[in-house]
């Protein structure tokens, strides 16, 4: 599955959410995750689609955002699975 093919229904299934109350939230999360991946890696949307493993990072990030909606920060680290996948595709290193 390509990043552009991911829907909020896919994210909800991954997060085991079976109600419609959070559809607007999942829409925002999907948009934010795509922007985060693109900004983190420096890849274009087309380049992101050619790397299907980034879809896994999108699911992990989206689930993390949904599960951790509170403002409390317990750990200042990015999810290790998502970080390792994204790090493989970084093109905007300084």
TrEMBL record:
Transmembrane segments: none
Pfam families referenced in this protein's UniProt entry, alphabetically: Phage_connect_1
Highest taxon above the source species: Bacteria
Name of the protein described by the UniProt record: Head-tail connector protein
Lineage: Bacteria, Bacillati, Bacillota, Bacilli, Bacillales
